[in-house]
Every structure is written in C-alpha cells, then in structure tokens.
Automatic annotation (TrEMBL):
GO terms under biological process: bacterial-type flagellum assembly; bacterial-type flagellum-dependent cell motility
Originating species: Anaerobacillus alkalidiazotrophicus
Coiled coil: none
Subcellular location: Cytoplasm, Cytosol
Taxonomic superkingdom: Bacteria
Keyword Cytoplasm: yes
Keyword Magnesium carried by entry: no
Name of the featured protein: Flagellar secretion chaperone FliS
Amino acid sequence: MVIQTANQAYQKNKFDTASPGELTLMLYNGCLKFIKLSKEAISNNQVETRNVNLIKAQNVIRELMVTLKVETEVGKNMLQMYDYILHHLTEANINNDIKALEEAEQYVIQFRDTWKEVIMINRKRQHGGGGRA
C-alpha cells in the first residue's frame, strides 16, 4: 500500500512538472500502451478489453488533435494524419482488425520517435548538453 501511494505521488509529480513537450511524449507512449493491450486482447479474443483500450487510444489521439495548432501547413498535415490514425483505431475496434491496429501503431511510433528527437534537440539548445526524453 505504501509503495503504491509513493508510486502514485511520483507519477503525479512527474505529470505536474512535465513540459508541454514531455506531456505530448507521455500521450504518445500512453497511446502505444493502449494499442499494445488491444493487440493482446484481439489475440486472446477479449472483446471488452480490446474495446476499452482502443477507446483509450482513440481518446489520446483526439486529445492530440484538439491541442494541435493548425495555423501552419505542418499542423494541418499532422491533423490529417491523426484523423487517419483515429480512423484505423476505430476500424480495428469495429472489425477486430489487427492489421488496421498495427498500421495505426506504426504511425504513432513514428510520431513518438520524432517528438522524442525534437525534445532532445531542444534540450541540447537550451542546456548545451544532452538529456534523455
């Protein structure tokens, strides 16, 4: 019980002190976690677990969509890609389609990895050193 409370406090502090870039990275990682759990649920024919986790993954993508600045061409293109990912997550849930889920996963991985690089480059510029994202 004490360990769980300490872990919860750590997670809350991690969230409360994270930069906007780190929060976005957390969203990508959370989405990938829910996709992984959904893939396992599909493999084990666990419909309810698949549904719950795919809805969570969809909600993460929706959050990324509503917080995206679309004044630039890059922002507009990212919005279209998020919509594409959301469509595949929905298709995976409706049709129990692991291929659609894996395609969505690949795009989320690419976004996450790119975002991680951006954070590391930004840290180097700000602090003159490295840092892990």
